[in-house]
């Protein structure tokens, strides 16, 4: 067996991580080698990511991995948040910092695009939850803003892979979140490209998760440990990767991938795109092994983080563990929030936005000061748990599954207070999975393909991935 190491890169909207998998006496050991904070910022009249900062941080992480892995690095794979993309110029260089999906330019783009192709039709063609953040609306916003046609674009993880020497691809799990891929075939949907007047030639070729896209080249490849590293497209969508990191079998479980967003759903063999799933805006996104992530984006730690930013700006910096502990001691709040109110997806002034909703619903406004943070946090956690329970009820109905178990993975899965509220609200047995489940899934997909899983679109491949995930969940140091 090959004893060389592997590297997983996980791009997050709040932090990016580079992790190393090594084989010590035949057993896997995973170490988070480098983590750095990420956040969009206002530049040139838009909310954008700092691409140079992200790339520098990742390369620093990869170099640190190389310095640890004297046995050499066999493979590298990159996953990350979906929908955002890098535009390339004729030389393949980025045309500028990528927009963040929360930028409000898509409010207008969505309205305008829906006059050319209706939301019902988009939904029917793709099976994907209509979200203003989806790549489709962003590309359309570019066109409205006069970005010239004919510029290639790549979603962020795939961009990083290509920057390091990989072929330009659109990995399927990530591509589905663009809202531009056909539901029953892994191919771009011509009708949508035509309606939005987008150039098909600007989109990269779709490949399944677990595809080798090339070998590392450029300055990083000069390090001897990295010389022969293979670049792999894992499930480039971090959520699909996190779900691939759940080593569960059977048909009685659902998941919450809990981070900035809470993705609440279950894995299906076949998409569900009937009238009810559509009306309720459930999504059918690509999963590993040709399966489907059937879920809904529910708001998540975004609410807490945004409040924390507001309080920190006022001089009181709360940490999440402090807030969780303090929230647990407050009384159960009166009047739950509608956590998916579009206003609460926007950036800034979160305590005020929450109060505005409360007042609209006839509840008293809360004291917005930082000393009242535990009350806000308690309100948010109770409201999230209640929303999860509603969504899970519908998932049981749509999927026909008798749900018994709920796996909570991702950064916010370690919030035991929220897990307890979720167990109470849903009646399900809640399992706390890996905080770094995307990394587990990323490594699992790499090893499944390296160790023989050629045919990456089959259920057998998915089962292999799940076995590797089982091995890796306990291997995180
Ligand atoms: C989670 C996630 C969600 C996607 C949102 C935007 O990090 O990838 O799945 O809907 O971010 O990309």
TrEMBL record:
Q: Which GO terms describe its biological process?
A: rhamnose catabolic process
Matching SUPFAM superfamilies, A to Z?
A: Actin-like ATPase domain (SSF53067)
UniProt keyword annotations, A-Z: ATP-binding, Kinase, Nucleotide-binding, Rhamnose metabolism, Transferase
Record-linked Gene3D superfamilies: 3.30.420.40
Show where the Carbohydrate kinase FGGY N-terminal domain sits. 7-245
Stretches that traverse the bilayer: none
InterPro entries in the record = ATPase_NBD, FGGY_C, FGGY_Carb_Kinase, FGGY_N, Rhamnulokinase
Q: Using the record's annotation, list all stretches that form the Carbohydrate kinase FGGY C-terminal domain.
A: 254-446
* Protein name in UniProt: Rhamnulokinase
């Amino acid at each position: 067996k090959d004893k060389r190491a592997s590297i997983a890169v996980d791009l997050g909207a709040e932090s990016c991580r580079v992790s190393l998998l090594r084989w010590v006496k035949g057993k896997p050991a995973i170490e988070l080698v480098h983590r750095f904070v990420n956040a969009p910022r206002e530049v040139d009249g838009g909310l954008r990511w700092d691409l140079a900062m992200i790339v520098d941080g990742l390369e620093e992480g990869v170099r640190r991995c190389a310095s640890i892995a004297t046995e050499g690095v066999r493979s590298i794979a990159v996953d990350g948040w979906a929908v955002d993309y890098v535009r390339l110029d004729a030389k393949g260089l980025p045309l500028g910092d990528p927009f963040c999906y929360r930028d409000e330019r898509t409010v207008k783009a969505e309205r305008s695009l829906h006059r050319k192709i209706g939301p019902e039709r988009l939904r029917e063609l793709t099976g994907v939850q209509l979200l203003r953040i989806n790549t489709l609306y962003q590309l359309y916003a570019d066109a409205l803003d006069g970005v010239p046609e004919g510029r290639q674009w790549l979603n962020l993880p795939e961009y990083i892979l290509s920057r390091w020497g990989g072929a330009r691809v659109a990995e399927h799990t990530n591509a589905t979140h663009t809202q531009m891929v056909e539901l029953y075939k892994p191919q771009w949907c011509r009708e949508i490209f035509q309606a939005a007047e987008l150039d098909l030639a600007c989109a990269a070729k779709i490949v399944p998760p677990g595809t080798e896209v090339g070998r590392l080249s450029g300055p990083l490849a000069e390090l001897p440990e990295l010389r022969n590293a293979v670049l792999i497209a894992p499930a480039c969508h971090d959520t699909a990767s996190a779900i691939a990191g759940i080593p569960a079998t059977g048909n009685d479980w659902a998941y919450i991938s809990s981070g900035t967003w809470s993705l609440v759903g279950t894995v299906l063999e076949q998409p569900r795109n009937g009238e009810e799933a559509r009306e309720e805006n459930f999504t059918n996104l690509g999963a590993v092994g040709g399966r489907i992530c059937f879920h809904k984006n529910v708001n998540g730690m975004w609410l807490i983080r945004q409040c924390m930013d507001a309080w920190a700006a006022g001089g009181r910096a709360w940490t999440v563990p402090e807030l969780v502990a303090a929230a647990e001691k407050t009384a159960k709040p009166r009047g739950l929030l509608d956590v998916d109110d579009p206003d609460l997806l926007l950036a800034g002034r979160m305590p005020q936005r929450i109060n505005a909703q409360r007042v609209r619903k006839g509840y008293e406004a809360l004291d917005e000061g930082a000393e009242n943070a535990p009350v806000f946090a308690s309100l948010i956690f109770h409201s999230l748990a209640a929303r999860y329970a509603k969504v899970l009820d519908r998932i049981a109905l749509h999927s026909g599954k008798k749900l018994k178990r709920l796996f909570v993975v991702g950064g916010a899965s370690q919030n035991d207070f929220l897990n307890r509220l979720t167990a109470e609200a849903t009646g399900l047995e809640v399992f706390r999975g890996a905080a770094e489940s995307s990394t587990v899934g990323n490594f699992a997909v790499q090893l499944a393909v390296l160790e023989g899983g050629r045919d990456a679109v089959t259920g057998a491949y998915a089962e292999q991935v799940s076995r590797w995930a089982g091995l890796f969940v306990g291997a995180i140091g």
